[in-house]
């Protein structure tokens, strides 16, 4: 008996797997480049002699390609695997950066943006589905929280680096640096796709008929009156509201609050830092008490951030509002992604994320242009107040309707 080995507890599986770590590294590189440039894109469009109306039109038109491709991108991800789908999207994204580098005017920049948006159409649905498949349902919101906290380093480093780069290197230097980071990420993603095989949750034919079956299932969920229906409604309201004001925010800060480009980069970094700090505890709370309570709290916090920005016209209040809004996004993001991933079968996760983004995106398509018209026709502050009001109006349906119904999901898995 003395020589009997002492029993040991089985090793606990890591919350973040080695494969997920490499996956997040590529995401960080790609999106540091994006966060260096895209928060400042409205100001770059100004440099290319675009007015407020043209800027609104630019962002409305630039949404068309990713919206047209996202459902197909999510379905392809379900069939060939998340990593292969992301690799395909990354090639399109790299070509888009080449177009942005070469663009001599805002019209040609729109062409480069459209090509690059292929990346979003393939990467966005696969990103959340891949994280869901690297986690257990009991701790899924926490895994989303940890993953997105790691990923959110881009929202801190990117804007700071972008504001610094445009001061030191100029716009072309900034764009070349951002593109170089994206090319490095593309190389990692291509390597991962080759090394890890298809990793598809469902095997099946790549046919129009098969796509039709998956799409019909999503339409059934959307019209069922259950959780997916209310996710669509609430997300639609949010996307329209954010579309009205989001792309005008850098111009509002510069022209109405007197904030320069480098300081705008710092504000975006504060937003990212606040989001990082909140995501892990928010994911833990969502797992423990339910996603809908965390989502409702996130929308209330978002309303508070807009109220602060609009009611207190100082640079310090603008900085505080970015911190508060970062906390709001930190609450919303892991809870939303966890709830969506639990509400559909694994074999439909890719198309589900694509379907939700696309449906709401089409509804919100005119929002940037309408926001520009409100800016010019009513007042620069008008689109921001509408956004704030929408954040408040979403809260009651979230609390009443965002209840996960296992029976609904099982019925669609069986049928």
SSE topology sketch:
Layout: H1 18-37, H2 41-47, H3 52-62, H4 64-80, H5 82-102, H6 106-133, H7 140-151, H8 153-168, H9 170-195, H10 208-222, H11 227-245, H12 249-256, H13 261-289, H14 291-311, H15 315-343, H16 349-363, H17 367-377, H18 382-393, H19 395-401, H20 406-414
Helix pairs in contact: 1-8, 1-9, 3-17, 4-5, 4-6, 4-16, 5-6, 5-9, 6-16, 7-13, 7-15, 8-9, 8-13, 11-16, 11-17, 11-18, 13-14, 13-15, 14-15, 14-18, 14-19
Unreliably modeled segments: 4-11, 407-415
Mean pLDDT: 80
Strand content: under 5%
- Along the chain, the helix and strand elements come as HHHHHHHHHHHHHHHHHHHH
Count of helix runs: 20
**Which CATH C-level class is it?**
Mainly Alpha
CATH topology: Growth Hormone, Chain: A
Rounded radius of gyration (Å): 21 Å
- State the end-to-end CA separation: 56 Å
Oligomeric category? single chain
Give the helix/strand class.
mainly alpha
CATH architecture: Up-down Bundle
Considering DSSP H and I runs of 4 or more, what fraction of the residues is helical?
A: over 70%
Structural write-up:
The protein has a single domain (18-414), classed as MFS general substrate transporter like domains (Growth Hormone, Chain: A), CATH 1.20.1250. The chain is built from 20 helices and no strands. With 415 residues, the protein is mainly α. It starts with 17 loop residues before the first helix and ends with a helix. The chain is globular. The relative contact order is 0.16.
């Amino acid at each position: 008996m003395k020589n009997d080995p002492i029993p040991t507890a089985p090793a606990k599986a890591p919350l973040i797997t080695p494969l997920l770590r490499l996956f997040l590294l590529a995401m960080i590189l790609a999106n540091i480049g994006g966060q260096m440039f895209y928060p400042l894109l409205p100001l770059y469009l100004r440099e290319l002699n675009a007015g407020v109306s043209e800027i609104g039109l630019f962002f409305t038109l630039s949404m068309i390609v990713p919206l047209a491709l996202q459902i197909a991108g999510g379905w392809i991800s379900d069939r060939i695997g998340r990593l292969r789908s992301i690799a395909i999207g990354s090639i399109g994204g790299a070509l888009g950066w080449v177009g942005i580098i070469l663009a001599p005017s805002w019209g040609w920049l729109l062409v480069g943006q459209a090509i690059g948006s292929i990346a979003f159409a393939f990467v966005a649905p696969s990103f959340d589905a891949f994280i869901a498949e690297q986690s257990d349902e009991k701790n899924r919101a926490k895994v989303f929280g940890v993953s997105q906290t790691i990923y959110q380093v881009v929202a801190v480093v990117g804007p700071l680096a972008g504001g610094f780069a445009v001061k030191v290197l100029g716009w072309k230097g900034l764009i070349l640096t951002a593109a170089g980071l994206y090319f490095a990420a593309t190389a990692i993603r291509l390597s991962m796709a080759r090394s890890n095989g298809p990793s598809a949750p469902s095997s099946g034919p790549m046919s129009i008929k098969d796509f039709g079956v998956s799409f019909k299932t999503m339409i059934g969920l959307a019209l069922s009156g259950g959780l997916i229906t209310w996710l669509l409604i609430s997300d639609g309201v949010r996307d329209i509201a954010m579309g009205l004001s989001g792309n005008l925010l850098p111009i509002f800060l510069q022209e109405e609050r007197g904030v320069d480009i480098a300081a705008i980069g710092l504000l975006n970094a504060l937003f990212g830092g606040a989001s990082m700090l909140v995501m892990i505890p928010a994911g833990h709370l969502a797992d423990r008490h339910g996603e809908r309570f965390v989502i409702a709290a996130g929308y209330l916090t978002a309303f508070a951030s807009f109220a602060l920005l609009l009611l207190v016209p100082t640079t310090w209040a603008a900085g505080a509002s970015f911190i508060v809004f970062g906390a709001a996004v930190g609450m919303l993001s892991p809870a939303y992604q966890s709830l969506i991933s639990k509400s559909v079968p694994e074999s439909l996760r890719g198309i589900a994320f694509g379907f939700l983004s696309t449906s709401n995106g089409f509804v919100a398509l005119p929002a940037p242009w309408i926001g520009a018209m409100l800016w010019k026709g009513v007042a620069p502050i008008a689109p921001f107040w509408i956004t704030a009001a929408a954040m408040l109006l979403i809260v009651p349906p979230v609390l009443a309707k965002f209840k996960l119904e296992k029976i609904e999901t099982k019925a669609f898995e069986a049928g």
